[in-house]
Design a protein that fits this description.
Layout: H1 3-24, H2 29-46, E1 62-65, H3 71-80, H4 86-89, H5 120-133, E2 140-145, H6 153-163, E3 169-175, E4 178-179, E5 182-183, H7 184-187, H8 193-199, E6 203-208, H9 212-220, E7 230-235, H10 258-276
Parallel strand pairs: 1-2, 2-3, 3-7, 6-7
Antiparallel strand pairs: 4-5
Helix pairs in contact: 1-2, 1-3, 1-10, 2-3, 2-9, 5-6
Length: about 280
């Protein structure tokens, strides 16, 4: 896909996300919106071997959503990729649905149960080691939250990633600077992330996660043969793409009322119209 096509798809996914969360009356919409561009780029431009007809294809790239509470963004992405049928996604929030508030392997296209914060990178390290041991070409991508960086298990995984020279592993931090209890730098300061992860022996790159062109360029520049695991610090905006949510901590988990839903959808539809141009 071209960058413009990815932008358009991300906006269509964003509209679907807002509608799904509104209907379900639950969802971590702020973080969903901040990571949606990256997730769209991963599934439609970066990751290889993904096949809705064969979700367990041997050489598929793997994705782990460590910040599992933002599963709604993953659900709409899987629907767009045709792993999920629309009628299944519409059951989110209903009794008996296979769709939970965190990823589960009952859902086609989801690799592991996740959402207990701090666990995803350790799982990703294990996957990447397995690929190395089996001499397989597939890669592993792990998306973490920035508030999640307070979990000590992440740094054990970081050390292991360096020890085993996992250049087939890409970790992404959704750096929107807001978590459920406020600004990350007030709760548990993270800066400078770059120096911290560089000291752990990782190949570290900053990217603008609100800008699809920069996302595409950054992923394209990864050297998967340099003997180092890769960390992308994705600088994003909480609530990205819905103006009244952007940069507001309360939308970490928030339920839209009908008027807010209509306002958000209208805003996104205008961008879709402009991109279709």
């Amino acid at each position: 896909m071209t960058t413009k096509e990815l932008q358009l798809l991300a906006e269509r996914n964003r509209k679907r996300l807002v509608e799904v969360v509104f209907r379900a009356k639950a969802g971590h919409i702020g973080g969903d919106l901040s990571c949606l561009n990256v997730m769209t780029a991963l599934y439609f431009h970066v990751m290889q071997g993904l096949d809705p007809q064969n979700p367990k294809a041997t050489d598929r790239d793997r994705f782990v959503l460590s910040k599992g509470h933002c599963v709604e963004a993953l659900y709409v992405t899987l629907e767009a990729k045709e792993f999920l049928k629309p009628e299944i996604l519409d059951t989110l929030g209903q009794y008996g649905s296979i769709l939970s508030g965190h990823p589960t392997i009952e859902v086609p296209g989801i690799e592991v149960n996740s959402g207990a914060l701090g666990h995803g990178l350790s799982i990703g390290v294990g996957m990447a080691i397995a690929a190395k041991m089996d001499k397989k070409p597939w890669k592993t991508y792990v998306l973490m939250g920035d508030g999640e960086q307070g979990e000590g298990s992440i740094y054990e995984a970081a050390m292991a990633g360096h020890k085993y020279q996992l250049d087939n592993l890409v970790a992404i931090i959704d750096r929107n600077r807001l978590q459920i209890s406020g600004n990350t730098e007030d709760v548990m300061p993270l800066d400078s992330i770059r120096e911290r992860w560089t000291a752990f022996g990782w190949d570290v790159t900053d990217m603008n996660g609100d800008d699809m062109a920069d996302i595409v360029k950054t992923f394209a520049a990864i050297d998967y043969t340099n003997g180092k695991p890769h960390l992308l610090i994705s600088h994003t905006t909480k609530g990205r793409g819905v103006s009244f949510m952007e940069g507001i901590a309360k939308w970490h988990h928030g339920v839209l009322n009908e008027e807010q839903c209509k306002e958000a959808v209208a805003e996104i539809e205008q961008r879709i119209k402009d991109l279709e141009g």
